[in-house]
Amino acid sequence: MKQRKKADLPSKVCPICERSFTWRKKWTKDWDQVRYCSERCRRSPKNQA
I need a surface site. Which of 3, 39, 40, 41 has the fewest CB within 10 A? Predict the structure, then answer.
């Protein structure tokens, strides 16, 4: 597999902390379902920023 630059990777914005995060190899199969940048954001209450 050819190497890609970090700038060329897809990215999303976390709805909890509102930070941008980029694609990771472990998310290859389920990138469409990934919503949060980390486990901490996933576990946090929705109304907390």
Answer: 3
16, exposed or middle or buried, with CB in 10 Å at 0-12, 13-18, 19+? buried
**Angstrom distances, CA of residue 21 to CA of 1, 3, 18, 31:** 22, 19, 9, 12
Confidence of residue 46 (pLDDT cuts 50, 70, 90): confident
Distance CA 29, CA 48 (A): 29
Angle at 21 between CA 16 and CA 26, to 5 degrees: 110
